[in-house]
Write a structure and sequence with these properties.
- The chain has 536 residues and is an alpha+beta fold.
- Helices cover 55% and strands 13% of the residues.
- It has 18 helices and eleven strands.
- The strands form three sheets. Strands 4-5-9-7-6 form a five-stranded mixed beta barrel. The protein has a two-stranded antiparallel ribbon with strand order 1-2.
- Helix 17 (487-516) packs antiparallel against helix 18 (521-535).
- 48% of the residues are buried.
- Bound molecules: flavin-adenine dinucleotide.
- Residues 173-176, 180-183, 206-208, 256, 259, 264, 420, 423-424, 427, 429-430, 433 line the site of flavin-adenine dinucleotide (FAD).
- Flavin-adenine dinucleotide binds next to strand 3, strand 5 and helix 14.
Length: 536
């Protein structure tokens, strides 16, 4: 008998671009062949980096957290935030791979968003949520472009989308105040015109990535009425030419459940100089392009965490023995992992359906139906995938047994970080109400039904029942919406309505994917996953 105590081999992440049947088969099915050839090199490179050096760095960086230094040695208030090593590396990589540049460069036209988010999908789970500032940066560029403000576009957009690390800026999105993150109309920050220039006074309660060089924010111009309509959108540069904060104090960093590498700060705006973007009212409308972009990042992040967790769990199952066999050979454990595969495949397909539509919209390729679909898919995808991420990652933690609960395995952080996805960028309830209260909901539902029907129309014979169930799901949700006029009953049912639509579209996308793949192992897996998801 061996005298050496047993040591369990640690799990390794998969090289998602090569090893994940879903990513591989989806890119092969959806992308134009030229583009596939063109981007395969960089996707493969980033995928190997994510599974190798970045994973190691993330483990090594585990105990580091950002710190806030209020004062320098001589008594000057500096409010400097020191970032963690992996975050510094992540910024360099993000710039090198053009994670905010790609949608602006548009090398692949309407497919540029897919290109960008395929890279984001690989980058996200091993970079400690550095995707948070990237999402806001990408969103700010889009919002400024939509604003038509030539001066601000010329000043900020080249920096937000730069491929030069010395030029690159990130942006914050300062909306939430202590009065409300959902009910932003309750914001108390005041904008005052002083000598012809706007200055902001108030408190922003959650400002992630507080190291950003600029931010888009909401404030109420003095004299404006209450509510969201009385707010305006402002552009703020956080530091002056000498590097000092511009009428801003960083009061403290939040002590959070997760996303602990993200420096989320409470800020006091004490006369911060600001530039009005657009009109002096309806700022909540002006900032909407930002929210669409950040909700797309959120949806991709949800799918990315889930697929990454699945890769780790599958690898562990092959290494871990119990009751005389690898976990991967135990029928019930296999079943558990297959359920997670199906859930995370559904999240991935919905997130990328959203991203595809966004790319086509930015390319001016969407007809009215497509635009209506994009408007409803934005809250649906964010809400559905956010919930799936938190629930799915929790199940993944269990798949590691006790090891999944032990911090230095690098596994628990997944759960803590995934838990933010249903909260920020609109909670599940708030997104559900947004959807249900849309004036154009009927057009959106029609477009959604058409997309579901399109996904199901050439269903493989093994997926006929799944296809019928997807169409029925949308019809049932629509019938509820049409039959329910009582305000309270509508609000109370909004979440079930939204998630029903989300899951029905996911099922249709799974059916479509499985039915469209060429015969082979990936098609067989996709069909199995669609059947499994339908049975859930
Ligand atoms: C880590 C982290 C980072 C963040 N970073 C930023 C940032 O950079 N910028 C920024 O602006 N914000 C940021 N936020 C704030 C975030 O967007 C808000 O926390 C979120 O929008 C919810 O707002 P709230 O906290 O005020 O909760 P509340 O609005 O008080 O909501 C509490 C609960 O009530 C529910 N609820 C609210 N209204 C209704 C209703 N009418 N019907 C049914 N249910 C309702 C919500 O769903 C939620 O479950 C961040 C949050 C976190 C956790």
């Amino acid at each position: 008998m061996s005298t050496h105590p047993f040591v369990q081999a640690a799990p390794r992440p998969w090289d998602a671009f090569h090893d994940d049947w879903l990513l591989r088969s989806w890119l092969a099915r959806r992308l134009p062949p030229d583009m596939q050839r063109e981007i395969a090199g960089e996707l493969g490179e980033l995928s190997a980096l994510a599974a190798g050096r970045l994973w190691e760095l993330q483990l090594a960086d585990r105990a580091n957290e950002p710190t806030l230094v209020h004062w320098d040695a001589w008594g000057n208030r500096v409010d400097r935030i020191e970032l963690t090593p992996l975050w510094r590396e992540a910024e360099q990589l993000a710039v090198r791979y053009g994670l905010t540049a790609l949608p602006q460069e548009r090398r692949h036209g309407a497919w540029s968003r897919v290109h960008q988010f395929a890279l984001v999908h690989l980058f996200h789970p091993v970079t400690d949520v550095y995707t948070c500032p990237l999402a806001m940066t990408d969103g700010a560029a889009r919002t400024l472009i939509a604003s038509g403000s030539r001066e601000l576009i010329a000043r900020a957009v080249p920096r937000l989308t730069s491929r030069d690390p010395h030029e690159f800026w990130t942006s914050g999105q300062w909306m939430t105040e202590s009065t409300g993150g959902s009910d932003v109309g309750a914001s108390q920050t005041v904008a005052r015109l002083e000598d012809g220039n706007w200055r902001l006074y108030g408190k922003k309660w959650f400002t992630s990535a507080a190291t950003s060089q600029m931010a888009l924010t909401l404030a109420r111009p003095e004299g404006n009425g209450v509510g969201g309509a009385g707010l305006a959108m402002f552009y703020v540069e956080t530091r002056d030419a000498s590097g000092r904060l511009n009428g801003i104090r960083v009061e403290r960093l939040k002590d959070k459940l997760g996303t602990r590498k993200v420096p989320t700060a409470e800020l006091t705006l004490d006369g911060a100089p600001a530039t009005l973007v657009g009109g002096t009212t309806h700022g909540t409308r002006a900032i909407e392009p930002m929210l669409r972009v950040t909700r797309a990042w959120n949806s991709v992040a949800a799918a990315s965490f889930l697929r990454h967790g699945l890769g780790l769990a599958r690898d562990y199952a092959a290494r871990r023995q119990a009751f005389g066999a690898a976990l991967a050979k135990q029928p019930l454990h296999r079943e558990t992992l297959d359920d997670l595969d199906a859930q995370s495949a559904a999240a991935f397909l919905l997130a990328f359906c959203f991203v595809e539509l966004m790319g086509r919209d930015e390319g001016g390729e969407l007809d009215e139906n497509g635009a209506a679909l994009l408007r409803v898919i934005t809250p649906i995808a964010k809400a559905t995938t956010g919930k799936q991420a938190a629930a799915g990652v929790s199940e993944m933690i269990e798949a590691f047994g006790g090891a999944g609960y032990v911090e230095d395995t690098g596994i628990p952080v997944l759960l803590r970080d995934a838990q933010v996805l249903p909260i920020w960028e609109g909670t599940t309830n708030v997104l559900s109400l947004d959807l249900l209260l849309r004036a154009d909901l009927d057009a959106g539902l029609e477009a959604l039904r058409a997309r579901v029907a399109q996904g199901c129309k050439d269903a493989d014979p093994q997926l006929k029942a799944a296809a019928e169930s997807a169409v029925k799901g949308v019809d049932r949700a629509t019938a509820w919406h049409k039959a329910t006029s009582d305000r309270d009953a509508r609000q109370a049912g909004a979440r079930i309505f939204t998630l029903k639509l989300g899951r029905s579209l996911q099922l249709a996308l799974l059916v479509e994917h499985g039915s469209a793949l060429a015969p082979g192992a990936d098609r067989a897996t996709a069909i199995r996953m669609a059947q499994r998801f339908a049975a859930d």
